[in-house]
C-alpha cells in the first residue's frame, strides 16, 4: 500500500481480535511514531506497549481510579471498567511527558505526541491491522497517570487499540476538503 493510499484510506476499527501486531509490526509502528514532527526535537512522547497481563494491570489502574472518586462504587461497574483494555489484543498508551519550562509550548509538545499517534494509526492500517484511538475519562484521570508512572502535568494523549479487524472494516469516505477551505479575508487566496 503506498503512503497516499494509507493516509486517505485509514479508518478506525472498533472491534479488534487476536492476533495483535507481531514484534516486527510493533517495531514498524513505533518507528513510524518516532518520525512525527517535533518542534525542538524534544521527544515528548512515551509509549507503553500493553499486552496480555499488562492489559489486566491497566484495567486494575482504571478500577482504582474509579474507586478513588467513588469509594462505594459497585463491583459490576468496577468489572466493566477492568475489562475496557481487553477490547483489543494490544493497547499502546501514548503519553506526552511535558516540560512546561521549555521554550516550546506544552501545546506543541502535545501536538507532536498526537502526530506520533496518528503516524501509528496510519502505519497500523498500512500493515493490514485495525486500530482505534481512544481517550475517555480514564485518559484524563490523575490516578491513571500516577498508576502508569507519570506526573499529573503529563498527558495521556491516547490509548491506541490494535489488533485484527473482526469483520470487514468500513470503507473510508472520500470526503471533499472543499467545505474546510478558507481564504484570507480581502483576498482570493
Ligand atoms: C484525540 C482523540 C480521541 C479519541 N477518543 C475516542 C474515544 O474515546 N472513543 C472512540 O470511540 N473514538 C475515539 N476517537 C476516534 C474517533 O472517534 C474516530 O476517529 C471518529 O469516529 C472517526 O472515525 P474514523 O477515524 O474511522 O474516520 C478519538 C480520536 C481522537 C483524535
Strand content: 15-25%
Q: How big is the Rg?
A: 18 Å
And the CATH topology of the domain at 3-51 and 87-166?
Answer: NADH Oxidase
Biggest sheet details: 5 strands, antiparallel
Task: Please provide a brief summary of the model.
The chain is of the alpha+beta class and 189 residues long. It has helices at 3-9, 23-33, 53-69, 75-83, 106-126, 137-140, 142-147; strands at residues 16-17, 45-51, 90-96, 130-134, 155-165.
What descriptive keywords fit this protein?
7 helices, 17% strand, alpha+beta, five-stranded antiparallel sheet, globular, NADH Oxidase, binds flavin mononucleotide, 189 residues, single chain
Walk me through what this model shows.
The protein has 189 residues and is of the alpha+beta class. The protein has a domain at 3-51 and 87-166: 3-Layer(aba) Sandwich (NADH Oxidase), CATH 3.40.109.10. The protein is built from 7 helices and 5 strands. It has helices at residues 3-9, 23-33, 53-69, 75-83, 106-126, 137-140, 142-147, and strands spanning 16-17, 45-51, 90-96, 130-134, 155-165. Strands 1, 2, 3, 4 and 5 form a 5-stranded antiparallel sheet that branches. α1 (3-9) crosses α5 (106-126), α2 (23-33) packs antiparallel against α5 and α3 runs antiparallel to α4 (75-83). The two termini are 34 Å apart. Flavin mononucleotide (FMN) binds at residues 11-12, 133-136, 158.
Amino acid at each position: 500500500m503506498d503512503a497516499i493510499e494509507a493516509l486517505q484510506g485509514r479508518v478506525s476499527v472498533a472491534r479488534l481480535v487476536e492476533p495483535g501486531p507481531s514484534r516486527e509490526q510493533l517495531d514498524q509502528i513505533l518507528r513510524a511514531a518516532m518520525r512525527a514532527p517535533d518542534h525542538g526535537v524534544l521527544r515528548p512522547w512515551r509509549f507503553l506497549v500493553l499486552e496480555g497481563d499488562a492489559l489486566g494491570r491497566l484495567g486494575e489502574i482504571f478500577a482504582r481510579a474509579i474507586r478513588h472518586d467513588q469509594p462505594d462504587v459497585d463491583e459490576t461497574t468496577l468489572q466493566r471498567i477492568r475489562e475496557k483494555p481487553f477490547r483489543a489484543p494490544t493497547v499502546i498508551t501514548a503519553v506526552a511527558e511535558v516540560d512546561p519550562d521549555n521554550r516550546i509550548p506544552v501545546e506543541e509538545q502535545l501536538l507532536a505526541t498526537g502526530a506520533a499517534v496518528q503516524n501509528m494509526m496510519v502505519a497500523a492500517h498500512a500493515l493490514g491491522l485495525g486500530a482505534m484511538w481512544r481517550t475517555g475519562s480514564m485518559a484524563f484521570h490523575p490516578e491513571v497517570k500516577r498508576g502508569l508512572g507519570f506526573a499529573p502535568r503529563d498527558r495521556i494523549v491516547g490509548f491506541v487499540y490494535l489488533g485484527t479487524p473482526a469483520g470487514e472494516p468500513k470503507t473510508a469516505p472520500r470526503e471533499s476538503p472543499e467545505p474546510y477551505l478558507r481564504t484570507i479575508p480581502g483576498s482570493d487566496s
